[in-house]
Amino acid sequence: MNRLSLIILILAFTVAPALGQKYKKKNILKDLNTIEGFENAFIGFVLYDPEKDKVIATQNADKHMTPASVTKLFTAYAALEYLPETLSAAEYTVNGDSLIFWSTGYPLTLHQDHRDSTLIEFLSQSDKQIYYWPRPSEDERFGPGWGWDDYSGYYGAEKSLFPIYGNSVQFIIDNDNQTFDSSPKHQGIKVSVDTITSERARVSRDEFWNEFSVQFGEEGIDTLVRPFRYSDQLFTELLEQETGQSIDLLKDYTKPEAFQELKGTRRDSLLKWMLQPSDNLFAEQFLQMISGTQSDTLGVKKGINLSTSASALIGGLDGPPRYRPVLDHNLAWRDGSGLTRYNMFKPNEILKLLKNLNLDLAKKILPQGQTSGTIKDWYSPAVYAKTGTLSNNHSLAGYIETEKGKTLIFVLMANHYTASTTKIRENFGLILEKIRKGY
Questions:
Q1: What phi, psi does 302 have (nearest 5°)?
Q2: What pLDDT does 295 receive?
């Protein structure tokens, strides 16, 4: 055997196996069933190649599972179908010397992180007698199946007709000097100081009253956000503080056929602010905004029913009207945010949504590994995906760019695990890295 033949033979035995080292279906399924931390869990999975229109591997993909905040993908998709590119911050009409305004469900008015002063500036400049009409609503402060103690968590801001300040109080706490500042300030929002200190600053609230207690930490500055108890009266009084105007509540009113809109932020910006940090209030309010396009009554359930109704009229905003469901009418979908365990989605249903979502837009609004949102400290920058977490349930669904230039769609769901959520995340990362390198 000459030297050239020997080199070719050696390359055949060394390079060829490396080139063909795919993460095969059997290896994926083996990992899903044997990796430590998955042994007591119910694992749903699907990996799909959109270029070939081919499912590469699947497990329990037609089984109902708890999605948690992956639910927000369905909320986002419905918003893209139903809502205009620029959202309405409020609607109003002028009748003689009266200005009457009402809500669209828009959640950004004076929001602590994404402050929108559109309504404030408009009302401040008015020379009319101002009335606020609380349009009909079918919603309670919490959604079906939400934890009763969510009222005290930053993630548990109440749904409402017209959110203001994100329906929350922001506390900036100087532990070194034992002082604090809070916003908004209002006579009905009472704050006291606890004499006991802890390692980190804490803020607690009475469940039914806007009575907060601040507990200082050992050192440094802490910024904490805690939901307040919402009411129409509190809303109007906060508006009066900001605008310097007198605002009366108008109970008996019917929305007129002709009215005007105050333009707010762009829809896709709000989608990004919802999906990347996984904001629950924004998700619920999106569905209320959707319901308001077809009814005087705002409600999350109405928004869901509209988005999954076979008789729903859609497409009139940007194209010719058409009748079809935006999303499958058989979905077990109960809220906008995923806080309820009543939501049950199949991995294949999530896959179907991701197949229909515009990829360029998805990469702009979804969290990105090592870069943004809820996966800023996880996975590779090649991963664009929505997380979902409830106790003993964690999900991740989105897109992954492989070393060979492919973009694959994946859904990973782990329900009822007994390992730590950190361990489940690490397992997801191991599988995704093998996918990234193997395809």
A1: -60, -40
A2: 87
